[in-house]
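Q: Could you fold this chain for me?
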Amino acid sequence: MNHLTKITLALCIAFSGMHPTQLTAQEPAAPAEAPKEGDALELTEAADRAMERGLQQLISTQNPDGSWSNPDGGYKMAGTSLGLMAFMVKGHFPGFGRHGAALDRAKEFLLKHDRESPTGYAGAMYEHGLYTLALSELWGMTAKKEDNKKIQIALERAVQVILRAQSPLGGWRYHARPDAGQDTSVTAMVFVSLASARQAGVLVPTETIDRVVGYLRDQVWNEKSGGFGYQGNTGSTLACTAGGAYAAQLCGMRETEWVQASIRYLENSPKIFNQEEIGYYFYTHYYAIQAMVQAGEEHYTKWYPQIRDALISIQQPDGSWVEGKSKNYPHATPMAIIILGTPHRYIPIYQE
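A: Sure. Below is the predicted structure, expressed as structure tokens.
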């Protein structure tokens, strides 16, 4: 069974409550096949080169313990989780191929955290959401079949942290407590990981999803603009609208007027592809490209070439990407690779 077949199988059985590892427990994930000509016509040679340069930059900056972080060693959980997914979006998985050893070290870094954590909490909820997402997408996709149970246990513990931390209004904020409040940015990050875990067969109560819908629609969506605010429904921002739209789509609200209005808000923002004009550029587009995938082919095929070419134009000489003038966060390079690699469709949560 090749990797593309396994991905298709995973999507077909996800909502039956089974994970692909339950059906293929004796067969480890196979290395991804290179896309054939015509499989992803919007993936230009320039985009492919940009991704390869970005991946090489990540390899060169991986820490000895297998993690990725900012230059001061901070944000390791977020950096490592995004770093792994940047390779996975191109079809590279732990234990396979030329990057297999490096990705194995990153995987072990995440599992070591689970072994050492009394609760399974991975830090601030931003990082915890990314950690949970990486575990979900790793499950069943590593060369060592004995990893499956370890990843499953870590993922289930991480999901329980999220479920316990949901606020009464339905969202999440920085700390893993229901009384910590909520904002659109953290809520989107956390809910994407829950949606991925649910696809993989982990139980996510319907009540949890309903409360997320209520929070997004009633608390932070602005009917007049069509966008989402950070806290409250005033002051709509591009980053919050992209994240809110994608989270709402994953809640099953794709065809609703309020979610379609948020897509129009993004599409009608003339400066959205210009890094100098908007804040949180990579977070915005990390969510926006997936929102366009969910919105349908007509939206996606207009959007992807624009962000693809914009990202290629701002790549640094060393292969990295940076968020404005700041190098304090390790998210820019892996997020850029994930965005550029969207046509590959190797990671289930990034598929329509």
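A (continued): Confidence is low (pLDDT under 50) at residues 1-40.
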